[in-house]
Specification:
Elements (H helix, E strand, L loop, with lengths): L6 H6 L4 H17 L3 H12 L4 H8 L5 H40 L18 H15 L3 E2 L5 E3 H4 L10 H5 L14 E3 L5 H9 L4 E10 L10 E11 L4 H16 L6 E8 L2 E12 L4 E2 L7 E11 L1 H6 L8 E8 H9 L12 H7 L16
Parallel strand pairs: 1-4
Antiparallel strand pairs: 2-3, 4-5, 5-10, 6-7, 7-8, 7-9, 9-10
Helix pairs in contact: 2-5, 3-5, 4-5, 6-12
Bound molecules: 3,4-dihydroxyphenylalanine.
The site of 3,4-dihydroxyphenylalanine has 11 residues, from strand 9 and strand 10.
Length: 375
């Protein structure tokens, strides 16, 4: 970098147009050669800073006669403007090339094939949830969800399970805190509270399924502290047990992809349904699938269900003399085990890559009724 001429040095210079032109081309050359924001800043300070060369020249205007100033003024201002513009333009260039360098350095080649070892798979539970959503969507059911951290009112009281009811003890509940009854939070022990939330949030007719995680303090070969359930709820005028039976039959046929199925309704007890039934599916040990009356040779218990108890309907602010409905609940993990032939529940949640590879599904096996709900 050349030394900037001082005021006195400039005063001694021959003020021909050339002297400012030379200074200008010198500075513009330095600006063009600056290869980093720091180098550019050094050029700016040397020219336009407090004791910069251009600043020094501008200061000489004060000591000039009006005639000299009318000649030198425009020339020096032109110099200042040219340098200012060149500095700004070079700054933009340097910033753009810094950005391009960063983009080039951070570039990802998204055309690279995925390494086979990194290919994930869809967990059987997720696959079965997708299958359920597909089957029930075709019957006009929407998918509803609710919080996994519930309060005891939604999980128990509104479902006709009062404080003192033995069913509360049967559920092996994980409580979150010791708040007073009604506001006490817990990990939901079943998906049935989604029935309550749905009835309180929307007007009948209601047709929903609610798949999701539930929690109970229980652990052995067939129980894990977290597992999955799907809840079904239909609320309308004139809903009967026959509607329930047809819906479940249609669901079982579609889910297991069989043409015929036989169901057994066993009287049972759930606080939130009246009457309550447990539903067994006729199973053929030959095909290992549900079968019609002629071929089925054993019963498998698949779900709990019944007509929604009038007290539950009333707790949600609906008139039980106008609206009735049916509900059902079943374990999704159990459905997956039955359909895909797995006999131990625990590996479902072990995150063992070999198990996941063997039992998982391709992301492209999207269940559709037309293409087949199973993979
Ligand atoms: N909530 C019950 C459970 O966790 C399952 C169930 C049974 C749900 C009957 C229902 C029903 O909706 O009608 O064991």
């Amino acid at each position: 970098m050349t030394d900037a001429p001082s005021v006195s040095a400039f005063a001694k210079l021959d003020r021909t147009p050339m002297s400012t032109d030379t200074l200008q081309s010198d500075i513009l050359g330095q600006i063009a050669a600056a290869s980093s924001p720091e180098a550019l800043e050094a050029v700016r300070v040397a020219a336009m800073g407090k004791s910069g060369s251009v600043t020094a020249l501008l200061k000489t205007l004060g000591g000039m006669t009006p005639e000299q100033r009318s000649v030198e003024g425009p020339r020096l201002n032109g110099l200042r403007e040219a340098v200012t513009a060149a500095l700004a333009a070079r700054k933009v260039e340097l910033e753009a090339s810094a950005l391009n360098a960063r983009l080039a350095a951070e570039r990802q080649d998204i055309t690279l094939p995925v390494a086979p070892a990194l290919t994930g798979s869809i967990h059987p539970v997720s696959q079965v949830m997708d299958e359920l959503a597909e089957i029930f969507a075709d019957l006009g059911f929407a998918v509803a969800t609710g919080p996994e951290i519930e309060d005891d009112w939604h999980n128990f009281s509104a479902l006709n399970i009062p404080e003192t009811h033995p069913a509360r003890a049967m559920h092996d509940t994980f409580y979150m805190d010791q708040s007073p009854p009604g506001t006490r939070t817990l990990l939901r022990t079943h998906t049935s509270p989604v029935q309550i939330r749905t009835m309180m949030a929307q007007k009948p007719p209601i047709r929903i399924i609610a798949p999701g995680r539930v929690y109970r303090s229980d652990s052995d070969a067939t129980h894990t502290p977290m597992f999955h359930q799907v809840e079904g709820l239909v609320i309308d005028r004139n809903v009967t047990l026959a509607n329930l039976r047809w819906t479940l039959e249609t669901f079982i046929k579609a889910f297991f992809e069989v043409d015929d199925v036989t169901l057994r309704f066993r009287p049972s007890y759930f606080p939130f349904t009246e009457p309550s039934v447990e539903v067994d599916v006729g199973y053929s040990s030959q095909t290992n699938k549900p079968a019609g009356a002629g071929e089925a040779d054993k019963w498998l218990e698949v779900l709990g269900s019944g007509m929604v108890h009038p007290r539950v309907i009333a707790a949600c602010g609906l008139d039980p003399d106008v609206y009735q409905g049916f509900a059902f609940g079943c374990g999704i993990d159990r459905l997956a085990m039955l359909k895909y032939g797995m006999n131990d529940l625990r590996p479902f949640f072990d995150a063992d890559l070999r198990w996941l590879k063997h039992h998982g599904f391709s992301a492209f096996d999207v269940p559709t009724l037309s293409g087949g709900v199973s993979a």
